[in-house]
Amino acid sequence: MFLLGIIPITITTYLSNQWDIFISNFALFAALSVILYFVIQKSVEHRFQSRLTKLKGKVDEEVQGKLITLKGNLDHDLQSKIEVLRSTQQNKLESLRLEHQKVLLNFETFNSQQNERYPQLYFLTEQALGYIYYLRGIRKFPTFKNSDIEDVKTYCEVIEMNSGDKNRILSLWQQDRDKAISEIERLKNIIDYNRAEVKWYDANDYLIYNELYFSNEITDHSRKLLDLMHKYWLNLNPVYHSSTYMTDLNEMSQDNSVIKQKIDEQRKIWKVIMKKEVSGQATL
C-alpha cells in the first residue's frame, strides 16, 4: 500500500521536473516506434508472402499432379471406352458384312436355281404335251408281217410291256398271230396312255415343288395349261374308244377339239410369258 502511494507521486514529480526532456525523448521514441512498426510490418508481410508463395507453389504442384493424374485416368477411361466402342462397331460391321455376303450368296443361289427351273418347267410341260398329243390321230404300228417270236419278244421289251402280258402275247403268237397282233396294239395304246400320264405328273409335280422360284404369272398360266392338258388326256383314254362307248365317241371328239383349241391358245400365251421372263433374268 505504501509503494502504491509513492509510485504515482514519484512519476508526477519526475514529469514536472523533466517535462521538456520527456517530451523530446517521447517524440524520438514515437518516431522510432513508427519506423520499427513499418519494418516489422514489412518483415511480417515478406515472410507471409514468402510462405504464401511456397504454399501456393505447393498447392499448385499438388493440384497440377492431381490434374495430371485425373487427366491420365480420364484419358485411360476414355481410351478404354473408345476401344470398347470401336470393337463393338467392328463386330457389328463384321456381322453386317457376313449377313450381306449371305444375302448375296442366297440371292445368287436363288437366281441361279431360278434360271435352271424355268427351262426345266418348259421342257417337262412340252414333253408331257407331246406325249398326250401322240395319243390321238394316226400312229405308226408295226405289221409284224415278217416277224418271228424273237422279234415280238424284243418289241414287247422295247415298249416296256410287263412280264405277264409279254408271256401271254408270246403264247398267243404261237396260236393265233392276228389276235396276238391286235392284243399288242391294244396294250401298246394303254402303255402310251399311261406313259403320257407319267409325263404330265412330272411337269405338274415340278411346278408344285418349285413354285417358289416362279412368278405368279408363270404359275397361273402354267396351271391353266396343265389343267387343260389333263382334261384332254382323260378324254383320250383307250377305254372310251372301245365299242362300248361308240355312241359317245362323236360327242367326245367334239369336246376334244374344243379343249385342244384352248390348249393351243393357252400354250401361245404361256410361251410368250416364259420367253419374256427368261430374257429378263438374263439381263440381271
Description:
- By secondary structure, the protein is an all-alpha fold.
- It has 2 domains: 1-116; 117-282.
- 86% of the residues lie in helices and 0% in strands.
- The chain contains 7 helices and no strands.
- It has helices spanning 2-17, 19-133, 149-158, 163-175, 177-209, 216-235, 246-282.
- Helix 3 (149-158) packs antiparallel against helix 4.
- The longest helix is centred in the N-terminal third of the chain and has 115 residues, at 19-133.
- Residues 100-110 have low confidence and may be disordered.
Quickly describe the structure:
With 284 residues, the protein is mainly alpha-helical. It is built from seven helices and no strands. About 4% of the residues have low confidence.
SSE run: HHHHHHH
Low-confidence stretches: 100-110
Number of helices: 7
* Ends apart, CA distance between termini: 132 Å
List the helices and strands and how they pair.
Elements: H1 2-17, H2 19-133, H3 149-158, H4 163-175, H5 177-209, H6 216-235, H7 246-282
Helix pairs in contact: 2-5, 2-6, 2-7, 3-4, 4-5, 5-6, 6-7
Key phrases:
single chain, mainly alpha, 2 domains
